[in-house]
Each structure stands twice: as structure tokens, then as C-alpha cells.
Amino acid sequence: MTRAAEPPDAVLRYAGHSQAVVDVFLPVSLGRPEHPATLLVFVHGGFWRQEYDRMHVRPLADALRRRGFVVAVPEYRRVAGGGGWPQTADDVEAALAVVPGMLGDVTPGYVDQAALPVLAGHSAGGHLALWAGLRAGRRRVRAIVALAPVTDLLYAARVRMGDGAVQELLGGEPPDLPDRYAEADVMGMLTPAEVPVTIIQGDADVQVPAEMNRLAAARPDCQGVRYVELAGVDHFALIDPLSPVFESALLPALEGTARG
Predict the structure, then answer these.
(1) Lowest mean pLDDT segment, chosen from 44-53, 101-110, 195-204
(2) Domain for residue 5, yes or no?
(3) N or C: which end of the chain has fewer CB within 10 A?
């Protein structure tokens, strides 16, 4: 979170409220129009809470643009800042719907408007990326790369992940809000997932335990979900551009989906 990073090249607005902005990072050397760059929409984490905003993934976005991606990082309303369910998820869905088209004004000719974006996210942002991307389907998303995502909200609520972050997002406990939990969870969408999904998880993660995503990926009805577990890797190494994980796992996953 403290790595040096250049600011975005543009900040776009996707809706009327104050949080409805998207940071856009352009490749250091834009390719030729006949070889357009891949658009990566990256959803930041922070357990859906107001105190964690998009700024903490700016070093990662800066590093990814240096590797040739056009990176769009949407902000969204968060718990204690006008968010909660369903506003938080609705914002990510709205940004995903309009950002690819908006980039034509920022990078004319360099982002193929006919090509589908890759969608990625970290932690709670991984949950939101899966939720919005799987609902959008293959019509609007090429693939999803989820880094230590909160895939199973019932599991997360049971272990009080993030000191009750799921309960804060949804407004209560699972027995009291079964319909809301069912709507917000992504487990049912992975059975099977229409969009190719890669989950990358560190086994030394104490914020989002590997057990949850290991169990999710092992379910027989989750066939087609690619699960990568990294030994000795913690929660934040997954978004640290100076971590070995950046070169060994994250870039290969993103570049592989971009070619797919």
C-alpha cells in the first residue's frame, strides 16, 4: 500500500454520486491501433468498508500499465459511506457496463471496443468482480481473475471474517437475511461459471483463509474454475508489484486471459 506509483492518466465518472469515479492508467508506450491494448478492470478490496479506497491498489495499477495493460480502477460506495447491499455491488456492475465504452474518448483507437475486458479484483474486490462478472457473462467479460476473493459469504460470516465484515455489508446474520445472502453470494454462480475464472490464493493469508477458496474450488459443481494456491504467500503480496508473486503468478494469469 505504500509503494510509489504515478497517478492515473484520467479520472472518469460513471454515475452521479460522489464515489462513481474510475481511475484510468494507460500503458507507458501505447501500442499501434492495429495491436490494441487489453483493458483490465480491477476492483479493489478492503472488506467493503469506507476506510479502504482505490488508492491502495494504485501501485499495482501503475505496474500493470507498465506491462502494457490499460487499467481501469472503479471506486464504489462502501459500508459507512453510502454503500452496503446492494449499492456496493450495483456500483461495480454499473462501472463494468459503461467503462469500456467510455475509454474510446481517452484512448481513441488503442482499446479495441469490440474486445471484451478482463475483470480482476482482490479480497472483497474479488467477490465483487466475481459477482458482477458472472452476472454479465460472456457477452461483456472475457475472463475473471480473483485474488484471495471472499467466495463463500456463509463461511465468511461463520468465522466472522474481517471482524464481521460480511455482516456489515449485508446488514445482519445469515439466518435473519437468507435471501440477501443468497443474492450476494457467488458460490451458486460458479456452478458452473459461464465466464472463465481463475482464483489465486496464498496459503499464509490470515485475512481471507485459504481453506475457504480451497473448498470452493474443490466442489464438484465448480468444474472449470482454475485454482492456484501459493505456498508462503500472504494476503497483500497478491497486490504488491514488488512481490515475486507479481511476476510468477499474477502477470501470467492476466496475460493468459488476455490472449484467450
Answers:
(1) 101-110
(2) no
(3) C
Assess if residue 3 is contained within a domain: no
Q: Which residues contact 135 (CB under 8 A, 6 or more apart)?
A: 93, 189
DSSP-assigned letters across all residues of 53-80? -GGGGHHHHHHHHTTT-EEEEE----BT
Antiparallel, parallel or unpaired: β 118-122 and 39-43: parallel
Please name which of 182, 159, 184 lies closest in space to residue 169, comparing C-alpha atoms: 184
If one counts the domains in the chain, the total is: 1
Instruction: Say how far residue 32 (Cα) sits from the centre of its chain.
Output: 28
SS3 146: strand
| Residue 241: strand, helix, or coil | coil
For the ranges 38-47, 76-85, 97-106, the lowest mean pLDDT is seen at: 97-106
- pLDDT, tens digit, 9 for 90 and up, residues 116-126: 899 999 999 99
- Containing domain of residue 159, as a range? 10-259
Round to whole Å and give the CA distance between 53 and 124. 12
Residue 170: strand, helix, or coil: helix
Say whether the peptide bond before residue 252 is cis (omega within 30 degrees of 0). Answer: no
Report the greatest alpha carbon distance in the chain. 54
Residue 215 C-alpha cell reads as 473448498
Domain contains 132: yes
What's the CATH code of the domain at 50?
Answer: 3.40.50.1820
For residue 93, tell me if it sits in a domain.
Answer: yes
